[in-house]
Amino acid sequence: MGKIHNLEQDGSNRNLKVDQKTSLQYQEVLKHLHDFRENQGWSDFHNLKDLALSLNLEASEVLEIFQWQAEDASLTDDKRIHLEEELADVLTYTFFYV
After folding, report:
1. What percent of the chain has pLDDT over 70?
2. Which fold has domain 20-97?
3. In which domain of life is the source organism classified (predicted)?
4. What is the pTM of this model?
5. Do 59 and 93 touch, CB atoms closer than 8 A?
6. What does the pLDDT read at residue 2?
7. What 3 state SS string does 43-58 have?
8. CA distances from 14 to 2, 3, 5, 22, 60 (A)
């Protein structure tokens, strides 16, 4: 699997640069997410309290993947896919705060 983030090997983002194109892509993603929410009729349910609860629940699902695993255990392919899906859910709820 290739690099799926913009972090340096030490975990920092010191070299992350957000240019005009990246900013436009971010705005486009937000628009697609908000349009999707509107089309699903979910806007009434997306208040700050419910978004916070949902974000917490999805973050807990991320933790569940690592529960009872050794600290240095590698993820299986299935668990890595599951992790990516749960992180996408966390990110989506985070975007809905904007």
Report:
1. 81
2. Helix Hairpins (1.10.287)
3. Bacteria
4. 0.70
5. no
6. 45
7. HHHCCHHHHHHHHHHH
8. 20, 16, 13, 16, 28
